[in-house]
Amino acid sequence: MRDATLAELALHGYAGLTVENVAERSGVHKTTVYRRWGGVDGLVVDALDLAGEDSWRPPDTGSLEGDLRGLADEVRATFADAEAGAAPSAFVAAAFHSERAAAALHAFFRDRHARSAVIVERAERRGEVPAGTDAGAVVRATTAPLYFRLFITGEPMDGGTVAQAVGAAVAAARAGVFAAGG
Amino acid sequence: MRDATLAELALHGYAGLTVENVAERSGVHKTTVYRRWGGVDGLVVDALDLAGEDSWRPPDTGSLEGDLRGLADEVRATFADAEAGAAPSAFVAAAFHSERAAAALHAFFRDRHARSAVIVERAERRGEVPAGTDAGAVVRATTAPLYFRLFITGEPMDGGTVAQAVGAAVAAARAGVFAAGG
């Protein structure tokens, strides 16, 4: 059912998602879909929850800059690919219309940020950033400018955009902006 | 008509916006609204275009940090106020559903970033940042973490969030991350 939902999201976006289409694609009767998933929101939430169960791990390149670069490149590559970017884009759109989808989207990012914290912990052990640096803040500073362009300003992204976002996060982290009392 | 559209957006959001409601609120017959504005998208685009015609100017506090802090505080204050934040939130949502609304939203941010460039030009003249610093990049670095929380991760914002975003943008700008060849 998750695959069917993701495929339909990729094709039609959240606004075009219907229980009928997901049911038809999955071969499950639509009354069963309504009974078990409740409707479109339930399908989206179920598909998004899957994201937190995957085996994703952040890059481990040996440097803070390399690791953040890997994270940012992943975001850029996902949304540069129309097929790969369709489902995540649909989830962001769904969050505007459904409290359940919003809660699932927010949980997805909490999970991703928590898993990414190790990047900053390693950097701290290597002495690249001050002790007590807020890992989530460093990760958010890296990816926020990319999501801002994707979903708010609609500005294009290129390698220079990614390098600037990574460079800014690294410079701020080194300067202690994200450290306790920084 | 713009006031009526903004009031209806604030009340019902983009998903609940109807030509009928805007027509009734404005006292204009709905056939006239359809003829002149084409429908919901046209009303939204018209209301958004207004934003580019206002007299908004960025803060001028005498320091880069103070000016960026003023910008960031304005974003935070707008969205912390349910009434003030309703229309801009609805515009972001509308951009997911309408090419015209997306184009108007993107034009709004281009205009705001262009008007904000003077902040960085003044900082350059004061010697606070290297020559050739990309003004738009500094402004985006300041506000992107706030919009990321508001519209993507759903995380709360407080004074600390704002201070961190401003501090990171200033540190990166001073380090030359946003300068030509930086």
TrEMBL record, chains A, B:
Source organism (scientific name): Allostreptomyces psammosilenae
GO molecular function annotation: DNA-binding transcription factor activity; transcription cis-regulatory region binding
Keyword Transcription: yes
PROSITE patterns registered for this protein in UniProt: HTH_TETR_2
Chain ranges of the HTH tetR-type domain: 1-55
Pfam family, one: TetR_N
PANTHER family from the UniProt entry: HTH-TYPE TRANSCRIPTIONAL REGULATOR RUTR, TETR-FAMILY TRANSCRIPTIONAL REGULATOR
Top-level taxon: Bacteria
Keywords, ordered alphabetically: DNA-binding, Transcription, Transcription regulation
Record-annotated DNA-binding residue ranges: 18-37
InterPro entries in the record: Homeodomain-like_sf, HTH-type_TetR-like_transc_reg, HTH_TetR, Tet_transcr_reg_TetR-rel_C_sf, TetR_C
Entry keyword Transcription: yes
Name this protein carries in UniProt: AcrR family transcriptional regulator
